[in-house]
Write a structure and sequence with these properties.
The protein is α/β, with parallel strands linked by helices and about 240 residues long. The chain has a domain of about 120 residues: 3-Layer(aba) Sandwich (Rossmann fold), CATH 3.40.50.300. The protein is about 30% helix and about 25% strand. The strands form two sheets. Strands 6-7-8-3-9-10 form a six-stranded mixed β-sheet, sandwiched between helices. A four-stranded antiparallel β-sheet has the order 2-1-4-5, with helices on one face. Helix 2 packs across helix 3.
């Protein structure tokens, strides 16, 4: 993989919380342009911790993370990277949808017509322009998830998108809308952690299994997720659509 193709490079990453065991143990991972990577694994295996390290929210015990060949500095904002949290209430908090989506671009200096253009384009792309003046507490779970994507990724024009359990609490309508968005989005790469394995099959072209703080498998979704012994070993089930393949 050439330097020009590399979006994210993780080298020998270790992480533990104070007074706890190792959460991530010597993780190394390269992500190229065009890759949408599903991150699978049982609960408590470090998926969210990995995402928080990539975004600079947490500081690694050792190891390095590079985004477009620039080292991730903990505590520093990285606009090239956008994340959608599992609980949209942690992300959608302003007094109107417009102001919520505008929050990120405004904080990196956009104002006036340019700010409004970014917000309106993001809302229009997701088909939620009609929610612009609504307060977030009046939105459904699916609507909040789309607002989080509009503000956390689209309005910021993020190049790498990270999704933590994006289909949790979504009905079928919004789940399908999210699948279509991820499949057609113009972000250069994506990381998606989900227990919704059919969702991963539809949206990702590579998967990794994270278990006991290590990458236990890495490959094509059908090869990894269709392997009964491998999936069982890591407390996962083969998706129903792969049962007869």
């Amino acid at each position: 993989m050439s330097e020009q193709e590399t979006v994210l490079r993780i080298s020998n990453l270790n992480f533990s919380y104070t007074h706890s065991g190792m959460i991530l143990d010597n993780i190394s991972l390269n992500i190229a342009r065009g890759e949408k990577i599903g991150v699978l694994g049982p609960n408590g295996t470090g998926k969210t911790s990995l995402f928080l390290l990539i975004t600079g929210v947490e500081k690694p015990s050792s190891g390095e993370i590079y985004l477009y060949n620039k080292k991730i500095t903990p505590g520093k904002f990285h606009p090239e990277l956008g994340m959608v949290f599992q609980d949209s209430d942690d992300q959608v908090f302003n007094f109107s949808v417009f102001e919520d989506v505008a929050f990120g671009p405004r904080n990196i200096g956009f104002t006036g017509e340019e700010l409004a253009s970014r917000v309106n384009h993001a809302l229009g792309h997701l088909g939620i322009s009609h929610l612009k003046e609504r307060p977030p507490h009046q939105l459904s779970g699916g609507e909040k998830r789309l607002v989080a994507i509009a503000g956390g990724i689209l309005a910021m024009q993020s190049r790498l998108a990270i999704y933590d359990e994006p289909t949790s609490n979504l009905d079928m309508k919004f789940r399908r809308k999210l699948i279509n968005f991820i499949k057609t989005s113009n972000q250069e790469a994506a990381l998606i952690a989900s227990h919704d394995l059919e969702f991963i099959l539809e949206t990702c072209n590579r998967v990794i299994i994270l278990d006991e703080g290590k990458i236990a498998a890495d490959g094509k979704p059908q090869d990894i997720m269709g392997n009964w012994d491998l999936m069982k070993k890591h407390s996962l089930e083969v998706p129903h659509s792969l049962w007869n393949k």
